[in-house]
């Protein structure tokens, strides 16, 4: 007789609405109250010697806003801009101050609440040795899974440094395989 192991954990209320977008075929979201603006793709001024995930800066009504390529940051394949590409300008907490930055995404889908107004924690991350610091949980919208990004942790120095190290390892592995 096989024992059934319960993996159910306490889901938390999502407390509001989220901007849902698409990246590499996956649905992701950020709290809508952190979003300042959604822009069409535009020219980005490169920043010399910047890490690959920093695309550069855009001018937004006289302010210089750093643009992060979310695909590169999350180790997804590069993709050229198309008519659906969007730049999401948002607020991120860095230490004790708020900063404005922008994320380049494949497509913005909608602003909505999640099914049952719930975000489920990801408990298996530690078992699988997966760094889940950039995802605060999983939600569902019309039955489809949506990763809820943790903007503050995703942009923290510690997480960016670990992602950078992972990118270097991937680059080294690709060079060996070539």
UniProtKB/TrEMBL annotation:
Provide an example Pfam family for this protein.
CheW
Give GO terms for biological process. Answer: chemotaxis; signal transduction
* SMART domains recorded: CheW
**Span of the signal peptide:** none
Q: Residue ranges of the CheW-like domain?
A: 15-160
Q: Name one GO cellular component term.
A: cytosol
- In terms of superkingdom, the source organism counts as Bacteria
Q: Which InterPro entries match?
A: CheW, CheW-like_dom_sf, CheW-lke_dom
Q: What is this protein called?
A: Purine-binding chemotaxis protein CheW
Q: Which organism is it from?
A: Donghicola tyrosinivorans
